[in-house]
Write a structure and sequence with these properties.
two-stranded antiparallel ribbon; single chain; 13 strands; 26% strand; globular; Rossmann fold; alpha/beta; 257 residues
Length: 257
């Protein structure tokens, strides 16, 4: 089975992000693999162990040359080889999905594609669905459990209400992994050293001749998220303080009706 895992090179969520100009960030901060994609790699590794035989895991990403470090992490976690689509500027989800499709189809036939359910930088929730549509595959996201039997995948998807939706899909398909799906096995030093010898192929974005989508998304402006806190001391009896808290929540914060 040929298992592809789409990963993304993102800024560390613990880093201090500085906006430069209107729509760029200071890229001197630490970058790493999108955390949700770690669960996708782990899911692929476990599936390969389950299947045995000649199954292969291929990690794919689109990014600048520095994104090779994220692919190296994927290789250390168990991917067999990597594909890096090198682009000077990172396109939107529409163009990204088409580039991933072109690179995967150029490389071979995908039996299953894993992704993270979202990326922590853009949080667009779009790329995996656009990739599935481009490749004419069914897709499920927010996957918290999965099983494979007789060429069909059964997944449990987490819903906002706390309930779970069970979906059965034929192969090939696209699966967006949630954090509840597994606990990633982080690489040992020998695995990291071994990963350096694995194949990491670079593909120039332009060489894929990706057809431009009819529409596009452009980031016009980035603004830091600032929290304005105004401490207030409440005095009175316990009943009076509780009543004032309820009033604040209802009339000022407007989080209850």
């Amino acid at each position: 089975m040929r298992i592809y895992v789409c990963v993304k090179h993102v800024p560390d969520s613990a880093a201090k992000i500085t906006v430069i100009g209107n729509n760029r960030i200071d890229e001197s901060v630490t970058f790493l693999m999108n955390p949700y994609d770690e669960h996708a790699i782990e899911a692929a590794v476990r599936l390969k162990k389950q299947l045995g035989g000649d199954s292969e895991i291929i990690a794919v990403t689109l990014g600048k040359a520095a994104a090779a470090s994220t692919l190296q992490s994927a290789l250390a976690m168990g991917a067999d080889r990597g594909l890096l689509i090198v682009a000077d500027e990172i396109p939107d989800s529409m163009a990204t999905a088409r580039a991933l499709q072109a690179a995967i189809e150029q490389d071979g036939r995908a039996d299953i594609i894993f992704t993270g359910k979202e990326s922590i930088d853009g949080e667009g929730f779009q790329t995996m669905y656009r990739l599935a549509a481009a490749m004419n595959m069914p897709a499920a996201s927010g996957v918290e459990a999965l099983s494979l039997a007789q060429g069909r995948v059964t997944v449990e998807c987490d819903l906002e209400t706390g309930a779970r939706e069970v979906i059965e899909m034929p192969l090939p398909c696209v699966i967006g992994c949630g954090k509840g799906l597994n606990k990633p096995s982080y690489p040992t030093l020998p695995a990291i050293i071994k990963a350096r010898k694995k194949e990491l192929k670079q593909i120039d974005w332009q060489s894929l001749n990706v057809e431009k989508p009819a529409g596009r998304m452009e980031i016009l402006e980035l603004k830091p998220a600032l929290e304005e806190r105004r401490p207030r001391q409440l005095e009175g009896s316990a009943e009076e303080i509780a009543g004032e808290i309820v009033r604040i929540l209802r009339e000022e914060a407007k989080v209850i009706s």
